[in-house]
């Protein structure tokens, strides 16, 4: 009577053991691959000291006006991700792509990823570079951080330009991001496998193969690392901190809004209201997805030039 149970238990054990061993293997492979890839990452930009650590910043162009680029949430290598836009802007402007802690080649940090801490660190990096007069241009979540930033450093920021930027009280902003899943999939090496199986996300876009390789390496390194995970965990609180907030009325505001793949109810109307909340606000709809700087950088650059040139008294 006991033998059938023994056979059943052995069978069940084998069924369970196969995926367990497979996951153990992918975890080990992920650790080994990450260590190997660390030596394949090519430096770019420059490191500046911030809060006892180093933040990576890429400066391109020598124009009289400065544009500071800030990334969206989860962008593993901001200065590389912004490359097509930088190429369109740096003939006219000095362009500064900041890689906040936990992204690109910047250090990790255990300082909580509140909007106040993130913006304070970015400001310190700009101060280290002697940059004290500039236009902020931010993608996605940076629209939320920019509200905190401009409230603190209004005398330095000459305008804000949003690239399909997030807005206060947008539907879904109070929903937690399942970061435990992100971390587990990353640690088990599953994210690496899925990324390897997926189609090239930059296919047909203006990135060379070397840049795409570097972005993939930095995605493997940063996507589930502690700093970015902590920023994801803080996202609902960072939205809540600016609930009902507006930009200073005197701050010129240009909002590029994507018309494709919008998954937030009232996305356009929210931006129309934000543009109307300042004395000089403009909105430009572009037929593209959320990452407008991947596909429509020339259109963004043209809009930026026209807008900045048209600001009264500039």
How much beta, percentage-wise? 15-25%
N-to-C order of helices and strands: HEEEHHEHEHEHHHHEHEHH
Helix content: 40-55%
Total domain modules? 1
CATH topology: Rossmann fold
Order of strands across the main sheet:
1-2-4-3-5-6-7-8
Ranges with pLDDT <50 over ≥5 residues?
A: 1-24
CATH superfamily: Alpha/Beta hydrolase fold, catalytic domain
Q: Shape, please?
A: globular
Pfam families: Abhydrolase_6
Keywords: Hydrolase
Protein name: Putative aminoacrylate hydrolase RutD
GO molecular function: hydrolase activity
Summarize the topology.
Elements (H helix, E strand, L loop, with lengths): L1 H37 L7 E5 L2 E8 L5 E5 L7 H4 L1 H7 L4 E6 L15 H14 L5 E6 L2 H11 L4 E7 L15 H9 L2 H8 L11 H14 L3 H16 L11 E6 L8 H10 L4 E6 L5 H4 L1 H13 L5
Parallel strand pairs: 3-4, 3-5, 5-6, 6-7, 7-8
Antiparallel strand pairs: 1-2, 2-4
Helix pairs in contact: 3-12, 4-5
Note down, in words, how this protein is organized.
The chain is α/β, with parallel strands linked by helices and about 325 residues long. Helices cover about 45% and strands about 15% of the residues. It has one domain: Alpha/Beta hydrolase fold, catalytic domain (Rossmann fold). The chain contains twelve helices and eight strands. It has an eight-stranded mixed sheet with strand order 1-2-4-3-5-6-7-8, sandwiched between helices. Helix 10 links the parallel strand 7 and strand 8. Helix 3 crosses helix 12 and helix 4 crosses helix 5. The longest helix is centred in the first third of the chain and has 37 residues.
């Amino acid at each position: 009577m006991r033998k059938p149970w023994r056979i059943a238990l052995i069978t069940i054990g084998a069924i369970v053991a196969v995926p367990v061993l497979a996951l153990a293997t992918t975890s080990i492979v992920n650790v080994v691959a990450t260590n190997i890839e660390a030596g394949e990452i090519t430096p770019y930009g420059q490191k500046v000291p911030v809060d006892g650590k180093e933040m990576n910043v890429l400066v391109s162009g020598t124009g009289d006006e400065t544009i500071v680029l800030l990334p969206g949430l989860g962008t593993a290598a901001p200065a590389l991700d912004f490359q097509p836009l930088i190429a369109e802007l740096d003939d006219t402007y000095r362009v500064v792509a900041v890689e906040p802690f936990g992204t690109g080649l910047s250090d990790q940090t255990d300082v909580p990823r509140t909007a106040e801490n993130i913006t304070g660190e970015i400001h310190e990096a700009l101060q280290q570079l002697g940059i004290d007069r500039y236009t902020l241009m931010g993608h996605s979540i940076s629209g939320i951080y920019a509200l905190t930033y401009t409230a603190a450093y209004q005398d330095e920021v000459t305008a804000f330009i949003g690239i399909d930027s997030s807005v206060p009280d947008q539907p879904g902003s109070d929903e937690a991001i399942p970061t435990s899943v992100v971390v587990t999939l990353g640690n088990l090496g599953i994210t690496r496998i899925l990324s390897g199986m997926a189609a090239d996300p930059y296919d047909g876009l203006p990135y060379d193969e070397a840049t795409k390789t570097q972005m993939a390496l930095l995605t493997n390194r940063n996507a589930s690392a502690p700093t970015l995970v902590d920023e994801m965990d803080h996202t609902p609180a960072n939205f809540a901190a600016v609930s009902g907030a507006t930009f200073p009325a005197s701050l010129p505001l240009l909002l590029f809004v994507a018309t494709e793949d919008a998954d937030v109810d009232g996305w356009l109307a929210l931006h129309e209201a934000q543009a109307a909340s300042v004395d000089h606000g403009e909105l430009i709809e572009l037929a593209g997805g959320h990452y407008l700087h991947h596909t429509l950088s020339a259109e963004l650059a043209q809009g930026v030039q026209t807008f900045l040139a048209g600001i009264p008294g500039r």
